[in-house]
Amino acid sequence: MDAGTVWITQYGYGAIFVLLMLGIVGLPVPDETLLTFAGYLVFKQKLTFLPTLATAFLGSSCGITVSYACGRGLGLYLVRKVGPLLRLKPEHVSQVQTWFARWGKYALIIGYFVPGVRHVTAFVAGSSKLPLPVFTLFAYSGALVWTSSFIWLGYLFGEEWAHLSDRLHRPLIMLAALVSLALALYVLLWRRRQTVAR
Questions:
Q1: Roughly what angle, to the nearest 10 degrees, separates helices 31-43 and 3-11?
Q2: What is the dihedral of CA 127, 131, 133, 139, to 10 degrees?
Q3: Is 30 helix (H, G, I), strand (E, B) or coil?
Q4: C-alpha distances in Å from residue 118, one per residue of 20, 58, 87, 139
Q5: Residue 137 · residue 106 · CB < 8 Å
Q6: Alpha-carbon distance 49 to 54, whole Å?
Q7: What is the Cα–Cα distance from 152 to 111, expressed in whole angstroms?
Q8: How many structural domains does the chain have?
Q9: 32, 171 in Cβ contact below 8 A?
């Protein structure tokens, strides 16, 4: 067992909240493993489902909100400072902001399921000045889908979790990413149909 699972075993809901918040901000925390382990503890009746889901949701929501706030406060400053070294021009920033306003909100949902991506989507959303109500709708919906998916998987695998966790980590992420992509495509097609119907 790694340190994160030991902390969850010892400190329960508080550890779930803190570890997921830090993991979403960008610290090297194995988020999916911790969520499935929490689901396993629900299976073992050492934790209760609704408080586990609530603390996981709140931890990841707090983490992504911190990233968004950092992007909103520091994003453009960093782009101005580092941008010339990366050959980023003001028009590139403007294009990213336009793209994010139109499509980037969906990346907030899908990004949860892709390690490395989830750490930057909120920062980019903040630096792109994505409106806070839009950010909260998509980021918090993604947090709910992501946390409930992995907690449910941990519960579903039950006793097998301990044997399969290492081997299943990558396939579970890929499966979750495919499910979220399918969901995003469905929402996109549904919105297009609504626009055409008008």
A1: 40
A2: -30
A3: coil
A4: 12, 16, 24, 10
A5: no
A6: 9
A7: 19
A8: 1
A9: no
Owning domain of residue 68: 3-197
In SS3 terms, 90-144 reads as: HHHHHHHHHHHHHHHHHHHHHHHHCCCCHHHHHHHHHHCCCCHHHHHHHHHHHHH
Sign of CA dihedral 110, 111, 115, 116: positive
Name the pLDDT band for 73 (thresholds 50, 70, 90). confident
**Which residue has better confidence, 40 or 25?**
40
Rounded Cα distance, 106 and 71, in Å:
17
Tokens of 18: 């803190």
User: Cα–Cα distance between 186 and 132 in angstroms, integer?
Assistant: 24
* pTM of structure: 0.73
Report which residue type is found at 115. P
How many Å apart are CA 161 and CA 18, to the nearest integer?
23
CA gap 116, 148 in Å, rounded: 20
Greater confidence (78 vs 66) lies with: 66
Binned at pLDDT 50, 70 and 90, residue 194 comes out as low
Q: Looking up tokens 């980021």, which residue turns up?
A: 139
